[in-house]
Design a protein that fits this description.
The complex is a heterodimer of chains A (88) and B (219). Chain A is an all-alpha fold. Chain A has helices at residues 7-24, 26-34, 38-41, 43-56, 59-65, 67-77. Chain B has two domains: 4-106, Orthogonal Bundle (Helix Hairpins); 133-218, lambda repressor-like DNA-binding domains (434 Repressor (Amino-terminal Domain), Orthogonal Bundle), CATH 1.10.260. In chain B, helix 2 packs antiparallel against helix 3 (48-65) and helix 7 packs across helix 9. Classes of the chains: A mainly alpha (88), B mainly alpha (219).
């Protein structure tokens, strides 16, 4: 399998994966933001997301880029700014 | 009014510089509808080529403004350009650079329609074999595509795409439609559409037969 070595493609992959996490777990994400326990509540889904990303992206690039964490913030957290929460 | 290609992304989407993500999303959808092939608003004003060019310009604006990091960099570029011209590419670090200029100029729609430009080396697992919903989803993800992007190109309702990936066959319409959806979806991903559809439809038919048999036993 050819692993992704281009940072732009790695970023797109991370965002697509997290977009799916949001799409498939909309209620859990909302509740996780509301109660500030997003990472516990979505532990399995986020681990699955990281595993899929690691499987597809060059290990060195994945380690340096922190892509999944950035995508979590951009897609899951920033995408839920309308949710009432003590986070903000 | 300046031609679309000379307008900033904000002008193209007709939104303020401080527009929220939701406003960007709304403006994008409105732009797509305005420049759709069957748009009444553009009827007799723009030809098919003009409409396509306008949609691509809207796609490009959306691609940049819907990405918080890309937008931040774009705004930073605009700050030094009072006429809101496209910012010059700057030195980028290894982490999260802007897409290369060639990619920025290639709208999502074109990338998707041509089988995902730049993803020719994507390895979707071995060719052939059964295509189920999970495999279609993986094929989409490795191309960095979201359901909404596929829906924008294929015009298939995102909830149906979701059901196809989840194999919730009971929530899908008649098989003839599902075959069309899967074919369009696979073509978008640059897969061998006919064989993917054939493989997927075998699963649909198999599940339907199982359901019928179960109902028959209960009766």
């Amino acid at each position: 399998m050819v692993r992704i070595s281009d940072p732009t493609r790695a970023r797109r992959l991370a965002r697509a994966i997290l977009s799916d996490v949001l799409l498939y777990n909309a209620d859990a994400v909302r509740e996780g933001i509301e109660r500030d326990d997003l990472f516990e509540r979505l532990r399995d889904e986020l681990e699955e997301a990281r595993a899929f990303f690691r499987e597809r992206v060059d290990a060195e690039l994945a380690r340096k880029g922190n892509f999944i964490d950035r995508a979590i913030v951009d897609v899951l957290v920033c995408g839920s700014r309308g949710v009432r929460s003590s986070i903000w | 009014m300046r031609p679309l290609e000379e307008q900033s992304h904000y002008e193209v989407l007709e939104i303020e510089r401080g527009a929220s993500r939701e406003e960007v999303e709304r403006a994008y959808r409105l732009g797509q509808a305005t420049y759709a092939d069957d748009s009444m608003a553009a009827y007799s004003v723009l030809g098919p080529d003009d409409l396509r060019a306008a949609r691509e310009r809207v796609e490009l604006a959306y691609e940049v403004l819907s990405d918080p990091i890309g937008r931040e960099r774009y705004d930073a570029g605009l700050a030094g350009h009072p006429d809101e011209a496209e910012p010059e590419p700057s030195e980028e670090s290894l982490l999260l650079p802007l897409p290369p200029e060639s990619e920025q100029a290639a709208p999502v729609r074109r990338r998707v329609e041509t089988g995902i430009e730049g993803f020719e080396d994507v390895d979707d697992e071995a060719e052939g074999g059964t295509y189920d919903g999970a495999r279609l989803r993986r094929a989409r993800l490795v191309r960095g595509l979201e359901i909404a992007q596929i829906a924008a190109v294929t015009k298939i309702n995102p909830s149906y795409l979701h059901c196809i990936e989840d194999e919730r066959f009971d929530a899908l319409p008649a098989p003839v439609y599902v075959r069309g959806f899967v074919t369009a979806y696979a073509r978008c991903l640059g897969l061998q559409a006919e064989s993917v559809a054939l493989s997927y439809m075998e699963r649909v038919q198999g599940r339907r037969q199982e359901s019928r048999a179960t109902r028959g036993r209960r009766a």
